[in-house]
């Protein structure tokens, strides 16, 4: 079976979607990769979902990606006296490192890394930015701040520090245990939260190795300052607009989204746009028109994938949300302006033979109105290089590695298929013709374009193009 669209859909699994029959319904509605959110659920819960997805994969005969999303550090206030403290703009408030309970003037904040890093003039955002305070004074175990935006502070509310680089690993003890568990399960992607700097990616890579793809969640302003290095050290990127939108001005998020998508295309790394894409469908059977436009904008920007969070995890209409996202993507990609808009944002490519060959493959396929591009790819690199040009023909990515096939479920335009490796040029062309017909991409006498690296059994060596009549 094949998708009649290029961009991919990622859906978060939760109580509304974890049953095997519901997972199948979501896949049939359009999910390409399932996200397991390790901020919630037990290891047993995630193991059952993982097993159900793999059983579904065997049933439908198509690779399905599984993304493990690690929770990351959670910075929260402690227990507030009486469970609630109302702050008024202009007044002073004190945060304390120690103490079992705050009082009318003090809020527990048991994070020594904050007291070590924050300086007067920097802001603390509480409860997703609903309350904002500005640091005015600092001692070793307490700080004072002026309330800029007042509101209620209750127990365990989250704290964001947009202007502060914290000396904090993105991998907590819980994350390390979850990561070991996920790698043993066999997840295809690991999403790293709370990325601030390139060394965070190096730390995670040291634990993951090549057992899964490493995905950087961009949700901190500090990450934007070193974004090229972070992208280079990642295998994919997520534009996590929820936390990012708390820490940078709302009006800056759309521009940052476009910048990140462009940077990832240039680096040949898949990019996911996430958070609140169809948020109203948590409780309603249809999205707002603004939400439909938001999904469409990500597709026009050239994103590889768009993601559902609460819509599919806890919402009342998970299947309908996936179906709606599928319909929006197909409508955008069928619009007469789509290809010209995506082409206008083409970031160019590196001046190397493999990149040039992949670019020529995409251009040639469009010029010939080929029915498909066949990319022989061991690691996924050849398919990704072709996909960067966002060609109109679909990309049939043939790989002998099931891990590669599953990871390609995030890549724009790719229809991944695990096949036996080829050993000769004649076998390459014969199998390409067979697979495009078997998968419904072409009929006898149609033209296809084949890209591969020769000699075979090497990675990253895209150096051969073949135009073939089926």
TrEMBL record:
Residues 5-322 form the Pyruvate kinase barrel domain. The keyword Calcium does not apply. Coiled coil: none annotated. Its cofactor is K(+). Belongs to the pyruvate kinase family. This is Pyruvate kinase. It catalyses: pyruvate + ATP = phosphoenolpyruvate + ADP + H(+). Residues 355-468 form the Pyruvate kinase C-terminal domain. It comes from Methylobacterium aerolatum. Keywords: ATP-binding, Glycolysis, Kinase, Magnesium, Metal-binding, Nucleotide-binding, Pyruvate, Transferase. Its EC number is 2.7.1.40. SUPFAM superfamilies: Phosphoenolpyruvate/pyruvate domain, PK beta-barrel domain-like, PK C-terminal domain-like. Pathway: Carbohydrate degradation; glycolysis; pyruvate from D-glyceraldehyde 3-phosphate: step 5/5. One of its GO terms (molecular function) is kinase activity. PROSITE patterns: PYRUVATE_KINASE.
